[in-house]
Amino acid sequence: MSRVRPFLLLATRAEDQAADGEYAAMLRASGLDERDLHRVRLEAGPMPRIDLDSYAGIVLGGGPFDSSDPEDSKSTTQRRVESELRSLLDEVVDRDFPFLGACYGVGTLGVHQGGVVDGTYAEPIGAVPVTLTDAGRSDPLLAGLPDTFEAFVGHKEACRDLPPTAVLLASSPACPVQMFRVRTNLYATQFHPELDVDGIVTRIRIYQHYGYYPPETMDEIIDRVQEAVVTVPPLILARFVERYG
């Protein structure tokens, strides 16, 4: 049986294999089916009108867009997507509407709320230890999870200065802002809560020429991530759905 209100996945990946893999990963991690997780691929065309009252919550996926790139280096598509997301976030933040942004979510929500996002704390592709703050340990999406857990990352930008409206929930050794909350119901993670080993291997192959790593090191990176044990992050997506669904 479908839920009374579905969730909405906003996606930005232009490559079909990456986009479909992300959607499948979000379904697995959240426990939702396709009837209950609608998808809009923002890179494919203008954002349709989104009636927040029709949805239980919004998930924003990751992608190759970097919020901190100079404006004149951004594609027309990226500038359009960022403009549309800013307008949507105006309403989402004003209403404290349930929102979970994965990776690109830190860039979009972080910049929207006055944080500084740049390349200072970029992390290479791999599994890193993420440690909860005191606020994280008491947050409804994270309470009861291990204080430190492994999560998959791979990003060229990160939040250098936390937005003044945000509460820091988690950090990693090389990236101080791994997760934060704005108001009561808006979350952003730098790590990917949806990813398992197969998912990250697929992305490593697809994005080998996007500047995340020297292409000749691809096999070495794949060997390394295949040894990782990453089980906790998907629970965060599942809890988001459980809390707001």
UniProtKB/TrEMBL annotation:
Domain Glutamine amidotransferase: 52-195
Keyword set, alphabetical order: Glutamine amidotransferase
Name of a matching Pfam family: GATase
Phosphoprotein is among the record's keywords: no
Gene3D superfamilies found in the cross-reference section: 3.40.50.880
Record bears the keyword Zinc: no
Protein name: Glutamine amidotransferase
Source organism of the structure: Nocardioides panacisoli
